[in-house]
Every structure is written in structure tokens, then in C-alpha cells.
Amino acid sequence: MTFSDEPKRRKPISKSEWEVIKASHNYSCVICGKTEKKVGILVQAHIKANSRGGSQVLPMCATHHEMYDRGLLSAAQLKKIGLTKKSSAKLVPKQKKKETYFDGSEVV
Ligand SMILES: [Zn+2]
Description:
Layout lengths: L14 H10 L11 H4 L2 E7 L6 E7 H9 L4 H6 L4 H7 L17
Antiparallel strand pairs: 1-2
The structure holds zinc ion (ZN).
């Protein structure tokens, strides 16, 4: 049994594939550039490449992977992985919308 918080629908890549991907990014987070040694572990971020229809796996530190999954990365950060705020919004549909009152003001 493997422990993972990744949703099951995500197809795992092999360990050797992951090593190749990490090596091609110098074993560092694609967002902040911190190395695996610094951040402890790099997480597989599954980026859907809308142009090709497939998904790409990129190494990210736990912090930025979490932010990516929640759609919290800034436009500048998204640019580093070839995404825009608009395209990433499509990739993270589970992003929780802010609740609003009928007049459109945010529920705090
Ligand atoms: Zn990072």
C-alpha cells in the first residue's frame, strides 16, 4: 500500500521517468527554483498542456504545488510553467468560489 494524497485519477509516472523530469529541471521547483535538497521533497505537479491534450509532470516544492492545485499562483509564477491565470483557471475547476450575497458582495 502506498500513501499518497494525489487523487486516484492521476496516472502515476514511473520512478525513472520522474528522475528524468527532475534532472531536466536541475532537481528544483519550477516556480521558486529551490532545490530538492532545500525543500526536502519535490512533488509531481500535473500540468495539462491544452495544446497537446496530454498532461505534463513538473517538479514543484510542496508549497507551490499546493498553491497550484488551489489556483493561487500569481500570473508571473504561472508564466514559468507556460500558463496564464485564464488557462490555469480551466485546469483547476475544483477551485472554491467565494460565496457572495445576492447583491454580489462577498461573504466574509
Ligand atoms: Zn517552490
